[in-house]
Amino acid sequence: MPLPADCVVDGLGRDWLNRLVARQSSRRLSGLAAEAACNASHLVQERLAKWLVRLHCGANGAPLRLTQADFGAMLGVQRTSVNAAAGRLQSLGLVRFGRGKVQILDLAGLRAVSCGCGDSRTPSATMVVAPQRPAEPASWFSNDARQRDTAA
Fold first, then answer.
1. Where are the chain's structural domains?
2. pTM above 0.85, yes or no
3. Model pLDDT for residues 18-34, shown as the tens digit of each residue
4. Distance in Å from the first CA to the final CA of the chain
5. Whole-angstrom Cα distance, residue 152 to residue 149?
6. Distance CA 83, CA 113 (A)
7. What is the pLDDT of residues 37-46, one digit of tens each?
8. Integer angstrom CA distances of residue 123 from 24, 62, 109, 118
9. Which CATH number applies to 44-118?
10. Separation between Cα atoms, residue 109 and residue 132, nearest integer Å
């Protein structure tokens, strides 16, 4: 949630803002690490299926207005790789790809072939990167570092 600038300026140096920034930073980094692990561990087809499920749920079942180039950018792969993965998903009867439009035909089947990363209903969501407790600002420096600084 965005904070107004004057609220941030007023909060500088206060514990509540330090905790908020640390928590949000930790969540963002954990999400990025999970996405990187997913990209390294799963096939394009599995990752495409994951994104199709996510987008379908966000669109309330409406057809998705995205091109294969859009999916390529999302997945970090070439459009030709998306084309091959999309063709496999379409041949399984899970989706129908048209010009700039994707229709989900079998959501349960699509979930079954997706990697499941990020889906809180599947155990694999927690297997790629274990959730981490956000760092507290007070714990950013260990006691050892403080002792070294005072001893010098």
1. 1-41, 44-118
2. no
3. 888 888 888 888 878 77
4. 42
5. 6
6. 17
7. 777 778 899 9
8. 24, 28, 17, 10
9. 1.10.10.10
10. 31
